[in-house]
Amino acid sequence: MTVRDSRPGIDRLWEGLTSFRYSLFRLETLQQYSGSSEDEA
């Protein structure tokens, strides 16, 4: 196995990590603003 063969796996892993980090950021943001007047509107 060469580095070139393993590259697509690394790219997919990086995309998944990026997506997970964005989802975690959104969850933290939603939790921070829950119960605010904007949510109750």
Number of strands: 0
How far do the termini sit from each other? 57 Å
Tell me, rounded to a whole number, the average pLDDT: 78
The largest sheet, given as strand count, sense and whether it forms a barrel, is:
none
Order of helices and strands: HH
The share of residues in helices is over 70%
Identify the overall geometry: rod-shaped
Return the structural class.
mainly alpha
**What radius of gyration results from the CA coordinates?**
18 Å
* Helical stretch tally: 2
Q: List low-pLDDT spans.
A: none
Report the sheet-strand fraction. under 5%
What can you tell me about this protein's structure?
This protein is mostly helical. Helices cover 85% and strands 0% of the residues. It has 2 helices and no strands. The protein is rod-shaped. The termini are far apart. 0% of the residues are buried. The mean pLDDT is 78.
Essential attributes:
single chain; mainly alpha
Could you give a short description of this structure?
This protein has 41 residues and is mostly helical. 85% of the residues lie in helices and 0% in strands.
How would you summarize the topology of this molecule?
Layout: H1 3-33, H2 37-40
